[in-house]
């Protein structure tokens, strides 16, 4: 969960530059009307599992319980996120392409 007081303060203090926020907390709905875009970054389960088991910056995903949770969330949480997303980007593509698409989304937002 996001700390609502802190996220509200962050959003209240956002200036003219785009503010990109990452996460899918259970209380995301509290803030949905404050976002101009919601982008779902998606990938198939095998890709997600390969990524979390080989990364060196975070241990989440290495245990069987973690991998089970990821699989479960993909089935139960991702469809909910897809319903509120204004855009979906397939992250199996090269990172530069995903970043270019994300930048295009930001540029297309009203000032």
From TrEMBL:
SUPFAM superfamilies according to UniProt: P-loop containing nucleoside triphosphate hydrolases
InterPro entries the record matches: P-loop_NTPase
Protein name, UniProt field: Shikimate kinase
């Amino acid at each position: 969960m996001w700390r609502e007081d802190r996220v509200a303060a962050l959003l209240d203090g956002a200036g003219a530059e785009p503010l990109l926020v990452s996460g899918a907390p259970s209380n995301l709905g509290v803030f949905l009307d404050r976002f101009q875009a919601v982008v779902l970054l998606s990938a198939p389960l095998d890709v997600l599992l390969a990524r979390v088991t080989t990364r060196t910056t975070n241990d989440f995903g290495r245990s069987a319980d973690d991998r089970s949770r990821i699989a479960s969330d993909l089935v139960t949480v991702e469809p909910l996120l897809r319903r509120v997303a204004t855009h979906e980007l397939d992250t199996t593509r090269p990172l530069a392409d995903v970043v270019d698409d994300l930048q295009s989304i930001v540029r297309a937002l009203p000032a």
